[in-house]
Amino acid sequence: MPIKIPSDLPAYDVLTREGVMVMDEDQAATQDIRPLRIGLLNLMPKKIQTENQFARLIGATPLQIELSLIRMSEHQARNTAVDHMESFYRSFAEVAATDEKFDGLIITGAPIEHLEFADVTYWDELRRVFDWTQSHVHSTFGVCWGGMAMINHFHGVQKHMLDAKAFGCFRHENMQPASPYLRGFSDDLVIPVSRWTEMRQGEIDAAPGLTTLLHSGEVGPCLVEDAAHRALYVFNHFEYDSDTLKQEYDRDAAAGTPINVPCNYYPGDDPAAAPRNRWRSHAHLLYGNWISQIYQTVPYDIAAIGA
Asked: What's the pLDDT at 294?
């Protein structure tokens, strides 16, 4: 089954060319089923790239997915065209005012790691989002900074600045093979990492109710389950395209910003070589398992979420 997105959203053509099944509103209306409603709270500056990445992953399951794009009410995007934002996004304030509910919500990262959470201009509103998920979202997936912010809000776990950027593809260990979110996972796997901060395993272990599913000896915890809040927190980037780390490296190198070659990414660590994608299959597994868990546990009547 396909993902339902507007036919004029850039992701529609991108995913169609890749063979991902997509449908527009008119096509979806002909199917007598309830699609899973998944929201994407997009905090990234490159909105369209991020839309494509997550739509690709959640659109690859056998279920019909209805994707809703959401933005912060108190923050204006500066790197995406105004007409794109007006055409495809609703503010959180608009969503909350309608009292609508979602089967799942993805909260992306944001390039603001150097700021304390309280110094982020939209921190108060984001905290309202986190609390709102407990009554209006069946399962929430916080990604990178979004996951760090959410685990901080609910558990007080702090983020810590690193001496050097964790940048490249790092091997991670499957800590909970029986978890439904890791169904089909290898014993270890490679995941892209790009961050200046970390969450520390000891502090996560000290917070009641948190279970670490994936961990790296080099860059620490990666995927954490928070069952009580019906949430997953992932601090690394399964959703990255093959060339996303390359784009970040080329950008910083061109600007003269000190940056290391992303480790274990280019063949022979040679930036002139084409990078190889070694995480795509596990990315599809993770998000497919998340969608599957939602489908198996969510009430058929979406109004009953949070009741």
From this structure: 96
Question: Is residue 18 a contact partner of residue 59, using CB atoms and an 8 Å limit?
Answer: no
Q: Please, what is the angle between helix 123-136 and helix 145-155, to 10°?
A: 80
| Sign of the C-alpha dihedral computed for residues 166, 153, 221 and 203 taken in this order | positive
What class is the 3-159+196-241+287-304 domain? alpha beta
Three-state SS sequence of 87-109: HHEEEHHHHHHHCCCEEEEEECC
Are 159 and 255 spatial neighbours (Cβ–Cβ below 8 Å)?
Answer: no
Q: What is the pLDDT of residue 5?
A: 74
Going from N- to C-terminal start, the domains of the chain cover 3-159+196-241+287-304
Catalytic site residues? 144, 237, 239
Q: Please, what is the Cα angle at 20 between 22 and 224, to 5 degrees? A: 105
Kindly give the parts of the chain with pLDDT less than 50.
Answer: 1, 28, 30-32
47-58 helix and 280-297 helix, angle to the nearest 10 degrees? 70
Asked whether the beta carbons of 291 and 58 are under 8 A apart, the reply is yes
8 A C-beta contact, residue 191 and residue 222: yes
